[in-house]
Structure to design on (280 residues):
């Protein structure tokens, strides 16, 4: 027993099985395949059951879920590096949720939530103000030192925080790329919404970057993966959050801007007509 404990501390890369993760990924994969192959042909009377974009989004989303939740990312994040913990949270809250929503066809969303109370609840919780406040509240809570130190050694609390993070992340992305287009914001609203979402992560990111000494005692251990000191680990975590929480969102803002306004600019060729009339 003692030998196993010493080996785990001395060897951060020791393989560990996570049966619950394999079951979760397998269940999600099986449910999606069943929905597409069994329910889809019955519900969809005309047109494709899923698009190529939706299938690719699902594959990438399920791979991200597996990557962030299984060995070695999960184990390094939980025991050794807060920067890996931050990477895990970025994947689960900023990268995986929008892909998961893109992967869900409209008919599947309708089949799951119907048009009654469940749909009204989802619609209410997906309102930008409610979803944004709930998501950012969870993000801030998951960076409180006492919460972090307790959760990494408390399984139910750890998984509960991850469920809350992913659930609110799905809600916060609904106005951007959810399967129900009537819940979407207009292009201008999306850009403002994403800009506001990008502001909050800069606070804990700056705090981690400029903090002196160990912020999270759980990660202040003798074994240092990749030789990173506690301070460097925290600075890398801050950089990851800044990149994931701000740069990533700003890249989407820029994409929405050019997608919305570039066709209008290219279609407006009045300046060419004015130039032609002047030369003639």
């Amino acid at each position: 027993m003692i030998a196993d404990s010493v080996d785990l501390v001395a060897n951060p890369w020791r393989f560990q099985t996570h049966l619950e993760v394999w079951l979760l990924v397998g269940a999600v994969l099986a449910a999606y395949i069943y929905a597409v192959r069994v329910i889809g042909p019955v519900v969809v009377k005309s047109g494709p059951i899923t698009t190529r974009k939706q299938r690719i989004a699902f594959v990438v989303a399920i791979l991200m879920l597996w990557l962030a939740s299984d060995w070695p990312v999960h184990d390094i994040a939980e025991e050794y590096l807060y920067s890996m913990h931050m990477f895990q949270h970025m994947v689960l809250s900023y990268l995986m949720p929008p892909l998961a929503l893109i992967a869900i066809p409209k008919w599947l969303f309708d089949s799951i939530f119907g048009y009654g109370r469940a749909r009204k609840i989802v619609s209410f919780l997906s309102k930008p103000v409610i979803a944004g406040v709930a998501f950012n509240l969870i993000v801030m809570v998951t960076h409180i030192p006492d919460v972090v130190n307790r959760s990494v050694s408390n399984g139910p609390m750890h998984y509960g925080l991850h469920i809350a993070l992913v659930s609110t992340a799905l809600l916060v992305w609904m106005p951007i790329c959810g399967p129900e287009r009537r819940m979407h914001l207009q292009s201008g609203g999306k850009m403002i919404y994403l800009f506001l979402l990008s502001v909050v992560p800069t606070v804990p990111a700056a705090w981690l970057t400029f903090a002196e000494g160990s912020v999270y005692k759980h990660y202040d251990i003798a074994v240092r993966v990749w030789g990173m000191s506690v301070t460097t680990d925290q600075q890398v975590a801050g950089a990851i959050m800044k990149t994931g929480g701000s740069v990533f969102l700003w890249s989407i803002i820029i994409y929405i801007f050019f997608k919305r306004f570039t066709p209008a600019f290219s279609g407006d060729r009045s300046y060419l007509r004015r130039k032609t009339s002047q030369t003639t």
